[in-house]
């Protein structure tokens, strides 16, 4: 038995660290909320009916009462509304005194869209909307009578969106393999000015009275929560950065070109080289394999490079697995900006914008990039952005070294 417990502990601990690593990667693209990036703030009342037919073993569920609730509804991955996504409902419940000790604080309960039967209640299920969705806590609480899973399902919806009226859900509980038993009703509304809320929910620290998180659920979830709440990495910023001391890290900026939204993965670095030195490297197409990450060799460069319409012919990959393709200049402002369409089929094509901001003996260089055609564009943006940003940070470091070293002269 001891060996089994140790094995479970090792597996859940390793999985927890893996999830935390994924969260840290996602924070490069979403520094505020790696998952559930946008949501709708809700408020309402939870009416607990108790469990006279058979207690759950959690004091809060087994005691009738009325609780005030603040909630946030969101889509986990943040996919377009037309696509199914994992739905999430986070509740902050202020239990009434009849269910808890006087000093008990608020409880956070998180639900995600899952199945309702077995084993579906433990499997995440993408849904288009909440109309037919069922949600569970996915992982059980420890009660006085054993593990208890919580679930909610919609009873009625307002006309139109959730922001337009009252959303009514039934609250249920079950043992991991047992039948669901209804124990309350939740009524939520968005209020007069529907908007997202900054509230952060923590179901491990803020638990309902009489409920306790199992050790394995803590090991599985806590590293991810810790990673999500940490300040964004130094490379991730949302505003213009001051001058960078030598050897300081690259900064990642949000591109809001044309739409006010982050449309391209954008990195920026203050070079310890003049804009003339940087442009000298950029304008020599034969040097691209020296600073563009992924370009293994240059096969030919049009004599007109870097004029609009000119091409350089490169290879991508590591020998002997290399792909021959080309990059074309879409627009250019000599000494200041260069817009490229980089091809690398079968992965597809990408739009790349390089801009230079003269700072005397220094120069701020920015690269904005995103996939525009091919399989690369099918990858969700929240996954491809960190990969593009990581590659372009190294590209900028190489470009700076070549400019400082006098390449292109």
TrEMBL record:
Extent of Polar residues compositional bias: 250-259
InterPro entries: Catalase_sf, START-like_dom_sf
Origin superkingdom: Bacteria
Region (Disordered) location: 225-259
UniProt biased composition (Low complexity): 235-245
Protein name stated in the entry: SRPBCC family protein
Taxonomic classification: Bacteria, Bacillati, Actinomycetota, Actinomycetes, Micrococcales
